[in-house]
């Protein structure tokens, strides 16, 4: 895959440039307040910055390895995200064989379909075949206790953490006229816009946020943070049109769809955590919580972005 050009170099230089600036600011703040009581906000900020360095480096290495590297990376992400999700759901011994199929058969098959670019089966494998297989396998175990609840949670976990997330590397299979071999930049566009939106919504919420959108669900998500973060991310996305097959205004509209769906994804995952009485899905990523805490926006944004792009550009 011959995609490494000046555009990709410039995009990655911008991303890592921002990380360098953030690291310097975080270091200055830590040094300035080093003689005082431990500041949890500054500690959390620096932990998040370190985590971003690791995540960005891993992402770049996967892209350098080509399609196979990206597919393997997101297969692993789905594995850990599903593991975190299942940990929060009440499973019984009779569910273990169904879960074995999910982790060690269905995840590999889904990402194999992405790797060989078999769109027809990729798009229906989990929503149709896995969806029907899981209740059948659980029913055969003969355990009817909370059958519908247990089955639905496993199905929903597979749909969100595997099927939806697999649409990120699936961007590499799109055959866009005049854009052949450059789809990795489209993938990075999705990730950059999604994550910048999350960060900016957090920043605007901390700076000027006063009115919660859903106080009982997520009091930290404010109307001011939502509007400021979304608008800023749309402008940034429109300015990044040169790494996509889109015009600047289409890139802005795509960014709007990405950021709104990312917000909805975060809201839905917050509802799950609130219902389970926890703050984070896990602790695998320092400063960010679990894998699913970092991927919640992508879970909802990726399939929408993929299908909008496929419908209008292939």
UniProtKB/TrEMBL annotation:
Output a single Gene Ontology CC term carried by this record. Answer: plasma membrane
Coiled-coil intervals in this record?
A: none
Provide the GO biological process annotations: peptidoglycan-based cell wall biogenesis
The transmembrane residues are 9-31, 51-77, 98-116, 122-142, 154-174, 186-204, 225-243, 249-272
A Pfam entry, by short name: CTP_transf_1
Keyword Membrane present in the record's keywords: the answer is yes
Annotated GO MF terms: phosphatidate cytidylyltransferase activity
Tell me which EC number(s) this protein carries.
2.7.-.-, 2.7.7.41
Which key words tag this protein in UniProt?
Membrane, Nucleotidyltransferase, Transferase, Transmembrane, Transmembrane helix
What the entry lists under PANTHER family is as follows: PHOSPHATIDATE CYTIDYLYLTRANSFERASE
Q: What protein name is recorded for this chain?
A: Phosphatidate cytidylyltransferase
């Amino acid at each position: 895959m011959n995609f490494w050009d000046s555009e990709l170099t410039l995009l990655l230089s911008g991303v890592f440039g921002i990380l360098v600036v953030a690291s310097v600011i975080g270091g200055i703040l830590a040094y300035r307040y080093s003689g005082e009581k431990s500041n949890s906000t500054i500690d959390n900020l620096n932990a998040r910055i370190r985590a971003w360095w690791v995540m960005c480096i891993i992402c770049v290495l996967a892209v350098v390895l080509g399609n196979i590297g990206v597919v393997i990376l997101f297969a692993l992400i789905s594995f850990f995200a599903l593991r975190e999700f299942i940990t929060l759901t009440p499973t019984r011994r009779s569910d273990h064989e169904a879960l074995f199929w999910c982790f060690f058969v269905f995840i590999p098959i889904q990402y194999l379909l992405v790797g060989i670019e078999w769109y027809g089966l990729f798009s229906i494998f989990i929503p149709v075949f896995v969806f029907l297989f899981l209740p059948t396998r659980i029913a055969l175990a003969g355990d009817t206790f909370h059958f519908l609840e247990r089955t639905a949670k496993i199905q929903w976990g597979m749909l969100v953490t595997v099927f939806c997330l697999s649409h990120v590397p699936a961007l590499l299979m799109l055959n866009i006229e005049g854009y052949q071999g450059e789809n990795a930049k489209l993938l990075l566009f999705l990730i950059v816009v999604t994550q910048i939106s999350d960060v900016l919504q957090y920043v605007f919420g901390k700076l000027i946020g006063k009115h919660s959108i859903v106080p009982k669900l997520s009091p930290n998500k404010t109307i001011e943070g939502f509007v400021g973060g979304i608008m800023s991310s749309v402008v940034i996305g429109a300015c990044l049109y040169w790494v996509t097959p889109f015009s600047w205004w289409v890139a802005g509209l795509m960014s709007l769809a990405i950021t709104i769906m990312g917000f909805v994804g975060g809201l839905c995952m917050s509802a799950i955590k609130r219902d389970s009485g926890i703050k984070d899905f896990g602790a695998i990523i320092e400063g960010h919580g679990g894998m699913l805490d970092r991927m919640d926006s992508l879970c909802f944004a990726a399939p929408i972005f993929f299908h909008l792009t496929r419908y209008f550009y292939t």
